[in-house]
Write a structure and sequence with these properties.
7-stranded parallel sheet; about 35% helix; single chain; alpha/beta; about 450 residues; 17 helices; 6-stranded parallel sheet
Length: about 450
């Protein structure tokens, strides 16, 4: 079968992220003997005509569309992405009658609602690689699912999780937009954060890719695509069992040194861990603090407290690794007192950047969703396609916004609203700077245009 995979992401902030999902599905389909072509909406300047032209030239038997996000989860500057996906489906319908299959993390959060909204034929909720192969194999025989929404019941393990098939043309676009390439080392999340959809999408057990396969991907990115910066997309890079150190050790054993970044939880790290990661090029880390007081951290389901956040920040600072923290105000248990306490806690951190969000996007089937229903903030059958944000009862939105605006005013490394610097970061990428770039906001931080990489040479 000929299959066209469309990366429908339209979000370019805070920086461009390579469409890893369609690259991994593409790899599995090709290994199963199907012919695959990938097209990225951002790469083509969000042009519907480019998609139409691709369909006419390729004449696919199946069209898959990957939806990364529903919206930008920013209460103060909401941007809906689902509408753009709907326009893609509409244009596809105008030029082709083949089955249209939706997938991706954004789709999987509320698949039935998205299908009804945008009108695709089928959707795969959850892990899509094996199910997309099964769909294509069956379609070749004229067999199609009875239900429109196909849900993954089994998760891939170890070497079953494929290496991505990085498209050279798509990759070149992303290299010109920050020089960042995405790599995944694991799937699943065993943490119990009340607002998060990761365990729902990928399962509550961590499933590790083979470290050698991960590093093979990195070597290919460096040698074949001339990538200068790696972004590990795992929900949490430093897992509880420290399997991430096997990936880092494999990189060291192959003499790989390339600037890289990842998401970290602020616990379980030691000086020797940071030193090892720096040997392979660790440049900056994004720390999922999420709340700024012990009270709100506990209510979010976090196992750590603010002192652990501060210790983690100091640990990376000692090793001269830039850090960014992300905080949400308005959590369950938030009061005016915790807001003021949180402001001071955040401002007390040294040598770091903090991005501050107001409110928490409510996602279906999360603990936060149940809390919001119990508190009467939403109804059980409310469609969450239209974004609804949780702000703790007793906290007025206007007071919270003014308090955060005034509290962080004039502090360069505390960014509120969280997208306040996005335009500047994109401009720097256009000038040729590499990486996430928020580390330029760290007091004394510097950024160079190019990074030297080494892959076993």
């Amino acid at each position: 079968m000929k299959i066209l995979l469309i990366g429908a992401n339209v979000a370019s902030t805070p920086y461009y992220v390579y469409p890893l999902g369609i690259a991994m599905v593409s790899s599995t389909l090709k290994n199963a003997g199907h012919t695959v072509r990938q097209i990225d909406f951002l790469q083509n300047n969000m042009s519907l005509e480019s998609i139409e032209n691709e369909i006419r030239s390729f004449s696919p038997d199946i069209i898959g569309i990957s939806m990364r996000n529903i919206d930008n989860v920013n209460l103060l500057n909401e941007q809906r992405y689902i509408d753009a996906v709907g326009e893609i489906v509409k244009r596809v319908r105008q030029v082709s009658s083949v089955p249209v299959v939706m997938g991706g993390s954004g789709f999987s959060i509320m698949p039935e609602a998205v299908l009804d909204k945008i009108g695709a034929d089928y959707g795969i909720a959850g892990e899509g690689e094996s199910l997309m192969v099964q769909f294509a194999d069956d379609a070749q025989k004229g067999i199609y699912p009875e239900k429109r929404c196909i849900r993954s019941s089994n998760f891939l393990q170890g070497k079953q999780i494929p290496s991505a098939c990085y498209d050279p043309d798509i990759m070149q676009f992303y290299l010109k937009s920050g020089n960042i390439a995405s790599v995944q080392t694991k799937r699943g999340c065993n943490h119990k954060c009340i607002y998060c959809s990761y365990p729902l999408l990928e399962g509550a057990a961590v499933r590790l890719r083979d470290p050698a396969s991960v590093v093979n991907d990195i070597e290919s990115l460096i040698n074949d695509h001339k990538v200068g910066y790696i972004f590990f997309t795992d929900s949490v890079f430093n897992d509880d069992d420290e399997a991430y150190l096997e990936v880092v050790s494999e990189m060291k054993n192959r003499n790989i040194n390339i600037p890289w970044t990842a998401f970290f939880k602020p616990e379980g790290l030691k000086d020797e861990h940071i030193a090892l990661m720096k040997e392979t090029g660790l440049k900056a880390v994004e720390i999922g603090a999420d709340a700024s007081t012990d009270t709100t951290l506990k209510r979010l389901g976090k196992p750590f407290r603010f002192k652990d956040i501060a210790l983690c920040n100091d640990l990376f600072a000692r090793h001269q690794v830039a850090t960014a923290h992300f905080y949400m105000f308005g959590c369950p248990g938030e009061t005016r007192d915790t807001v003021i306490e949180g402001l001071e806690n955040i401002k007390s951190l040294k040598n770091t950047v903090s991005f501050i969000f107001m409110g928490i996007r409510i996602l279906p089937n999360t603990i936060l969703h149940r809390i919001a229903v119990d508190e009467g903030l939403v109804l059980p059958d409310d469609s969450l396609l239209e974004s609804i944000y949780y702000i703790a009862p007793g906290i007025e939105r206007q007071w919270l916004e003014k308090t955060l605006t005034d509290g962080f005013s004039g502090i360069r490394n505390c960014v509120f609203p969280p997208d306040a610097m996005d335009g500047s970061l994109q401009f720097l990428h256009k000038l040729g700077y590499s990486g996430s770039l928020w580390d330029m906001l760290v007091p004394g931080g510097k950024k160079t245009r190019k990074h030297r990489t080494n892959a076993g040479k």
